Amino acid sequence: MNAKYVLAAGVVLLSLSDISHAAGDPKVKSVMARSDCFTCHSIDHQVVGPAYKDVAKRYHGTAAPAATVIVLAQKIIKGGNGNWNKETGGSPMTPHPALTQAQATEMVKWVLAQ
């Protein structure tokens, strides 16, 4: 296996240990507020996109595998469509290319801790 991927997976695994703390992290919520996250999402009810609590439930919350966190972070950066069509009527999630992988990963951890 490529050493770069092993290292990345290790970093994510280490960061998952504090995923439950992320739920109350005001810095992460502030980054999300400066982005457009809360335009389409809410913590506890669907707006355009699914509620964060529903995302956490679908992806096993704080027990989400590291690979899932990586995939979800990439969906934040690159946008996505298809996983929530039943709930959203097919509305795609817009890409956020200005976010770093680290920022998107922290956002995912925050969402999964809801």
Explained architecture:
This protein has 114 residues and is an all-alpha fold. The protein has one domain: Cytochrome Bc1 Complex, Chain D, domain 2 (Orthogonal Bundle). It is 59% helix and 0% strand. The chain has 8 helices and no strands. Helix 1 packs across helix 6, helix 3 packs across helix 8 and helix 6 packs across helix 8. The N and C termini lie far apart (33 Å). About 14% of the residues have low confidence.
- Helix/sheet category: mainly alpha
Number of domains: 1
Average pLDDT, rounded to a whole number, is 84
| CATH architecture heading | Orthogonal Bundle
What overall form do the CA principal axes indicate? Answer: globular
Record field, number of beta strands: 0
- Radius of gyration, taken over Cα atoms and rounded to an integer in Å: 14 Å
Spans where pLDDT lies below 50 across 5 or more residues: 5-20
Condensed summary:
With about 110 residues, the protein is mainly α. It contains eight helices and no strands.
What's the SSE blueprint?
Layout: H1 3-16, H2 19-22, H3 26-34, H4 37-40, H5 52-58, H6 66-78, H7 85-88, H8 101-112
Fill in the keyword field for this structure.
single chain; mainly alpha; 114 residues; Cytochrome Bc1 Complex, Chain D, domain 2; 0% strand; 8 helices
